[in-house]
Amino acid sequence: MTTTLIIAIVLMVLALALYTIGVWSEKISGRLTKWHLVFFWLGFSADTAGTTLMGRMAGGFSLNLHSITGLAAILLMFTHAVWATIVLLRNDEEAASQFHRFSIPVWGIWIIPFFSGLYLAMFGNSLSLKSLVVSPAIHVSTGGFALIISIASFLIAGWLSWNKIPLTSFASRIFIGAQILIILQILVGIKLLDQGFGALQSFGHYMTGIAPLASFILFYWIRRTEKLSQTQLAAKITGSATLFILITFAFANRLIL
Fold first, then answer.
1. What is the average pLDDT across 156-170?
2. CA distances from residue 236 to 3, 77, 154, 196, 245 in whole angstroms, order as listed
3. Is 7 helix (H, G, I), strand (E, B) or coil?
4. If you average pLDDT over residues 50-56, what whole number do you get?
5. Backbone phi and psi for residue 128, each to the nearest 5 degrees, phi listed first
6. Nearest Cα residue to 172 out of 160, 182, 183
7. Which residues is 128 bridged to in the sheet?
8. How far apart are CA 74 and CA 11, in angstroms?
9. Which of 53, 165, 184, 226 can pair with 160 through a Cys bridge, CB separation 3.0 to 4.6 Å?
10. Nearest partner of 153 among 175, 169, 168, 170, judged by Cα
């Protein structure tokens, strides 16, 4: 075992310890504080350094489950730390007390590449996506489910907005479900591109396929302090996401070019 590998492993284990302490202590305390933020940034720094060393030893980036989830995890960690910084700088008490709802899912996603890395170390590069073949029918199916739940999100948000009712926890869960399906749809689409199916679609198909997720992200980026105003924004955002998904289907079926 080389010195570089030992340092990389130490950094990854340190990242696990720091990030876990920061996230779960925030959950237990019930409020985001400055020292939680310190652990977020330290965990991110250790993870980035360890991943960089691992990448150098591997000879660069290779397309497999570990590398994709690892990259997504680092981006999420960075977004998580930046968002936490903004919340504390704004002194947003409500956001600080609810921030664990974002922290826990990010930690859960981040832990996936940590264990997949252990798997690779024990069993080799058997998680390579090159050996996995995805049928275009799966892309159509996930797209259909994403459309259905996006329509449901729009109808729920629209009904709440029309009746001047603040967003409910059920509506929030539906929004999360829609985002998960859209992300899954994008990942399947990326795999199809890797299999050489990209020539079958236009650039507009890819852009309108990503746009629904961007719409949902805007909902969390555009801060609304007034609850009814937040519900109205949710109706507009979910309506936009649904429209983009419909346009994506139109591109896929060559109805518009």
1. 88
2. 54, 28, 8, 36, 14
3. helix
4. 77
5. -60, 135
6. 160
7. 64
8. 14
9. 165
10. 175
Q: Which of 173, 149, 175 is nearest to 233 (CA)?
A: 175
Rounded to an integer, what distance in angstroms lies between the CA atom of residue 175 and that of residue 152? 9
pLDDT at site 223: 63
Q: How many residues does this entry show for the chain?
A: 257
CA 238/CA 242 separation, integer angstroms = 6
Q: Count CB neighbours of 253 within 10 A.
A: 9
- Residue given tokens 């570089």 in the structure block: 4
In sequence order, the 6+-apart residues with CB closer than 8 A to the CB of 145 are: 181
Hunting for tokens 């259909």 — which residue is that? 144
Tokens of 143: 């797209």
Beta carbons within 10 angstroms of residue 220's beta carbon: 12
DSSP designation for 167: P
- Domain ranges in the chain? 3-127, 133-252
* This prediction's pTM: 0.53
Query: For residue 232, what are the CA distances in angstroms to 24, 218, 237?
Result: 33, 13, 9
Residue 29: what residue type? Answer: S
